[in-house]
Amino acid sequence: MSKMHALTGNEAAAYAMKQIDPDVVPAYPITPQTELMQTFAQYVADGAVQTEMILVESEHSAMSAGVGASAAGARVMIATSANGLALMWEIVYITASSRLPIVMAVVNRALSGPINIHCDHSDSMGCRDAGWIQIYSENCQEVYDNMVQALRISEHKDVLLPVMSTHDGFIISHTVERVDALKDEEVKKFVGEYKSLYPLLDVSKPVTYGPLDLQDYYFEHKKQQAEAMKIAKRVILEVGEEYGKLSGRSYGLFDEYQTEDAEYIIIALGSTAGTAKAAVDDMRAMGKKVGVIKLRVFRPFPAPELVQALSNAKAVAVLDRSEGFSGIGGPLFQEVRSALYRKADMPVSGYVYGLGGRDITPEMIAGVFGDLKEGRIHEDEAFHLGVRE
Amino acid sequence: MSNIIEIRWHGRGGQGAKTVAEFLALVALNEGKYSQGFPEYGPERSGAPIKGYTRISEGRIKMHSAIYHPDIVLVLDSSLLDSVNVCDGLKEGGIVIINTTIPIPELVKKYAFLNGKKVWTLDANQIAKDEIGKAIPNMPILGALVKASEVVKMDSVINDIREEFTKKFPPKILEGNIKAVKRAYEEVSGG
Fold first, then answer.
1. I want to staple B140 with a disulfide (CB 3.0 to 4.6 A). Which of A6, A223, A260, B127 is the partner?
2. Who among A170, A274, A278 is closest to B1 (CB)?
3. Which residue among A175, A176, A278 sits closest to B62, beta carbon to beta carbon?
4. Where along chain A do the CATH 3.40.50.920 domains lie?
5. Surface-to-core class of residue A376, CB atoms within 10 Å of its CB (0-12 exposed, 13-18 middle, 19+ buried)
6. In chain B, what residues touch A118 (CB-CB under 8 Å)?
7. What is the CATH number of the domain that holds B30?
8. What domain range includes position B50?
9. Helix, strand, or coil (residue A27)
């Protein structure tokens, strides 16, 4: 069925985009995303896709061009990283509130300053409240799989929300791994032909995008967005299951690894979840009951499902790859602890790690499990793992 | 993790360490294995010391950290030996392959960190100059690796050079690369 490729995370995302063949792709380069659009631009130049690529002068313009094209009725895909996402900011919110189903690959990179091109999640976590669905990929295979699924989730008539499909800068974006890709026609059939429900260019059914919306209706529109985000959870599961039937790789809201009898569980996003799984393999070989939950979907946040999955653990550690500056803990820690509040009574320990690309190793993960076992719980203030004091 | 072979490449910007680290991952993958190939990104300057990494395994590789305890170390530029402990974290009895003309006993005497390691050497610059016309040592070093470790098969390397580089290189350079790999396989010595 599938064909095996050796691809970097960026190439995997670009390959999925090639198979999808979106109508419009606005692009502006930024490390470590650049290689993704460079690869896709080659497909455009080779005539492998019919996409109209719009080369703009900034990320603000890239997102704006995406909004215009999507409102007009086109299927739009886009990509960025870090400061590029920050420059898009205003339009990121407008995309979601205009209910435009745009899929954006976010190649996670630390926000300046100081200037740093390496991975952390401060960019995508910064827009966790923007109204976009957020999906995090662990490896190059998932980058490919999630890009294909993201469109279906985004364009679902009950959802109509943009999706950020993220992967870790350099750690995944620039690592060559095995990727099993579907055939072109399988992807085309899976994503289907896009038909916008409210195209601006259909003059027989006039619609308005981006009007003034004051005390009279703004609140109702925000409530609708919140409702759509709730529905997205169901759609993500449906699409993940359907994709599983097609590819042999099904997807849920999160991935449970060796958690069934686990006394201690680590929750992480992205490539670190893979490193944590490797650590769990080693510790299981020594008879230790430890497990990992890789959160795939951060928005919408799967609170009741996580509570269920964690219910038998003695203690939980949450690894955040962004600071948040709350003084308490990172964004993932706060969501997990809120989810557990009055639902389960177990210590939740917060760690901030890996900022600006600082490496995280299986030994460091083993150290976190050791903390949990020995009762060193960081619940009032996150522990900064791997920082030099 | 014992079933994963971890390989670390030491070179200088421009010697092709990134290319060969990723190319080896591709060769392993085409042999039906799982693999990862990635460079360590810093400020990218020609001549600056850089590292590349390759992991090869029969099963899917979950880990995504850098490589700190390699099974094999490859040194594309022997001048690095003066400034970098290339054997840092190398497993006891691990393999080190160095691009140099200095005899092995002399090397081990000069660089204490090579003690207890399986040291192999070859003049990859000369091989590359003769066969490819340019002293880019990455492909000869790959030939030496196949001899010293058999992590992948020579036939797979040659097939994949043809497969991958036919579009990128003119036929003469392509065949030069293949000759360089084969010659390095014959000329590397040590162990």
1. B127
2. A278
3. A278
4. 254-385
5. middle
6. 41
7. 3.40.920.10
8. 4-190
9. strand
Cα gap B134→B125, rounded to integer Å: 8
DSSP A202-254: -TTS----S----TTTHHHHHHHHHHHHHHHHHHHHHHHHHHHHHHS----SE
- Residue to test with chain B: of A46, A175, A281, A365, most B Cβ within 10 A: A175
At A5 the three-state DSSP class reads strand
Q: Which of B65, B69, B159 to mutate to test the interface with A (most CBs of A within 10 A)?
A: B65
Counted domains in chain B: 1
In single-letter form, the type of residue at position A192 comes to G
Hey, is the C-beta of A169 within 8 angstroms of any chain B C-beta? no
Mean pLDDT for each 10-residue chunk of chain B (191 residues)? 87 93 97 95 82 96 97 97 96 95 97 96 98 95 96 97 92 96 98 88
pLDDT in tens, A97-127: 999 999 999 999 999 999 999 999 999 999 9
Q: Which residue of A has its CA nearest to B62?
A: A274
Quick one: fold of A3-247? Rossmann fold (3.40.50)
Secondary structure (DSSP) of A250-262 = ---SEEEES-TT-
C-alpha distance from A304 to closest chain B C-alpha (Å): 27
Two structure tokens written together for A375: 């009762």
Side-chain half-sphere CA neighbours of A35 within 13 A:
17
Could you read off the pLDDT of A281-326 as tens digits, one per residue? 999 999 999 999 999 999 999 999 999 999 999 999 999 999 999 9
- In this structure, which topology does domain A254-385 adopt according to CATH? Rossmann fold (3.40.50)
